[in-house]
Amino acid sequence: MQQFIYNDNSFFRFNNLLTDTQREKLKKDIDYQIEHNLCTAVRPYQTYNNMDEVYKDDEIWQFLINKIKDCVSAITNKQTKQYMCWANVSKENNAYEKHSHDTDLTAVYYLQSNLPEYGTDIENSIIVPSYENSVVIFNGELEHQIVNMPEILAKDNYRYSIVVDFNYV
User: Fold this and answer.
1) Distance between CA atoms of residues 33 and 111, nearest Å
2) Is the pLDDT reported for residue 43 higher than 90?
3) Do 81 and 123 form a contact (C-beta atoms < 8 A)?
4) The domain containing residue 84 runs over which residues?
5) Number of domains, the chain
């Protein structure tokens, strides 16, 4: 685990959560959801926020969610409850906007990211690199956004992320 602090807020990173085979399977599931069940409330490519329910019987999805829960448990002695889970894909026409979550903790798992410098922008001040196969956990109420890649880079470097939100109980 790595920890860094920005503006009195702690960020935690855990590396190497899944195997390549597991990651490929999750990517296929996300592609399927984006193609057949796209959440149109968040543009351009986001699944609905119930991926944990959609894939509740899927061994790999549950393995990842449990790994992320273990990471959350490692950084706090407070009891938490998982709130939502969804996935994003950044492509050529990515246009993600700044937002915050009404949750205590947000975990962003970088499933695929060939260009980590296009990570997660925090409050227009720092960019948390999107290192592939790692999860970053931070206060979900901080304003953040996916860093939108230039089209020329994004067309050959799709970025996949899975987000899991938690609240203290």
Assistant:
1) 15
2) no
3) no
4) 2-168
5) 1
